[in-house]
Every structure is written in C-alpha cells, then in structure tokens.
Amino acid sequence: MAQAKAGDTVLVHYTGSFDDGAEFDSSLDGEPLEFTVGQGEVIPGFDNAVDGLDEGETRTVSIPPDEAYGNHRDDLVAVIGREQLPTEIDPEVGLVLEMSSEDGIVTNVTITEIGDDTITLDANHELAGKKLNFEITLVEILAA
Description:
By secondary structure, this protein is mainly beta. The chain has one helix and nine strands; from the N terminus they run βββαββββββ. The protein has one helix spanning about 45-50, and strands at about 10-15, 25, 35, 60-65, 75-80, 95-100, 105-115, 120, 130-144. The strands form two sheets. Strands 1, 2, 3, 4 and 9 form a five-stranded antiparallel sheet that branches. A hairpin with a 3-residue loop joins β7 and β8. The chain is elongated.
C-alpha cells in the first residue's frame, strides 16, 4: 500500500477539536482537503502527521501552538481611538477588518474589545496559542 511522503499530493479527511472536545473544523461533511505534503500548504504539525500515513489509515495527533498557528503575540494587539475607525463601520466584537500598511501589506484584524473611546484590534490568527487535536484519514495519494 502506498505511503504519503514529501512531494505527494494527497486527499485527507480531518476533524479538528480542542482538548475540551469542542470541534473547530471538519471536512467530513464535504470534500476532502487536497494539499502537497511538505510544501507548507497546511500548518506544520498537520503536514508532519500526514507524512508516512498509508492510504485508508487514520491518525490522531495533538499539535502544539508552535507547530500550528503560533503562540499568541501581544505585539499583534493594538488599542486605537474610535475616531480612527471609518465612520461607515459599525464596530462590534468579533468583526474582522482588513488593514493596509503604508507598504501595501493587507492584514486581517479582529475587534476584540470596544470601550467608550477605544477599540482593541487583534491581528493574531484566531487559533494562535491553542493546542489543536486532529483526527486525520488519508483518503488517497493523487500524485508524486
């Protein structure tokens, strides 16, 4: 039976959950995820978990933050004055906004707190700082 290795394009089904059992993502109700092993198309811990799997095999892994979306970084959190937000935006906690830097780089930020005069923006990935658990099944190896 074929085993997934770096450079192989694969199809996998997965379910991602936290330690408390809460599910944050799954491909089971849709199409399997397609990616090339070892190319950085998925988080490193997920990539490593698929490497060496046989077609049809299922593996359960726990991925620490440094092999997932990184640790939560305080330097990616900013408090701005409400007047800095465009007037057409009605701020609410959880709203994701796009910000452009002077050099044209676009970053997504999430409103995490709203004060009387300030708004807190967080550019960390929503899963940063979290340990992620995955059940991964290698459905098929498409090509090497």
